[in-house]
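Homework-ish question, so no full write-ups if that breaks the rules, but can someone show me the predicted structure for this set?
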Amino acid sequence: MTPARQRYDQESLLAVAAQVFTERGYDGTSMEDLAKVTGITKSSIYHHVQSKEELLGIGLDRALDALFAVFDEPASMDGKAVERLRHVVRRTVEVLVAELPYVSLLLRVRGNTATEQRALDRRRTFDRAVRALFAEAIADGDLRAGLDPALTERLVFGMINSTVEWYRPRSEITVDDLVGAVLAIVDGLRR
Amino acid sequence: MTPARQRYDQESLLAVAAQVFTERGYDGTSMEDLAKVTGITKSSIYHHVQSKEELLGIGLDRALDALFAVFDEPASMDGKAVERLRHVVRRTVEVLVAELPYVSLLLRVRGNTATEQRALDRRRTFDRAVRALFAEAIADGDLRAGLDPALTERLVFGMINSTVEWYRPRSEITVDDLVGAVLAIVDGLRR
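A: Not a homework solution, just the prediction itself:
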């Protein structure tokens, strides 16, 4: 088995596992089920990961790492809060589309295992960072004064997250259309 | 068994069934499971409904009937489209909170049975009616001209629906707070 072939297997196993976990629920999916769906034998799956929970963890980290990487981009760090917020909103939508199976999985997580708890903790850290941007943009007078930062953050990111339910890449709605429509709503919050 | 007692049973059976269907999935829940959770014998459940699918249908109709009733209110029928839209948004949020277990169930439905297909059809009819309000309000010049009515409807109602994930009645956030925060975002779409 060449390393290239091995990488391909790992990558496709992860993508399929994320999809199956999302559809049937993590608790309702066995390694046996994954072997059937992927056509990879159970022993080959165990060549890549030690457990079902490790597979879940890799999938969740993939979504979370991509989301957190947004905060390290220059446009998330420099400039006025309202512009940094716009950048984070734009890039979150783009990450959501690029990593759809993993973000969908992340949004289903309810915290039944240690791995899920860790993912929920990271999600909360992400939400807090975005909430702080809303608060700062309101304090700057760039977003309307009456807005509740926590509630507005929940609603705006609930809206963004809800797109995993219906948006599919390569549909007639492009990612830029989607980003544009989300930003049009966010821009409506400006003073 | 008095009629009052019977009504109570039917009502509580429905509420618990909706919750269990939402949590475990309709396909993953047996009448046996419902009997265990409710403490009602299977034969008593069959006294109320003929099948699991009938129970699902009653739960879904409860959410859908409440949502469609919003369109029959005078404020949804009279006045400018933008005001009718605002009213529908406000009342949808209120219905969602009042009928939380049934709306949550509705939002999980993927169309695996005839009953689910019928519910999805009714949801699509609801969405079309709201989309028409967005289009009319944009045509009236009351919402910004550049907005895509279909995409904006999906995003705004995706935002509203996402509140079932975290909002709980009698929390420190009142329904009026929630309605206010949603309307603040919708009002941002005005010209």
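Now go work out the reasoning yourself. Hint: Chain A touches chain B through 29 residues (CB under 8 Å).
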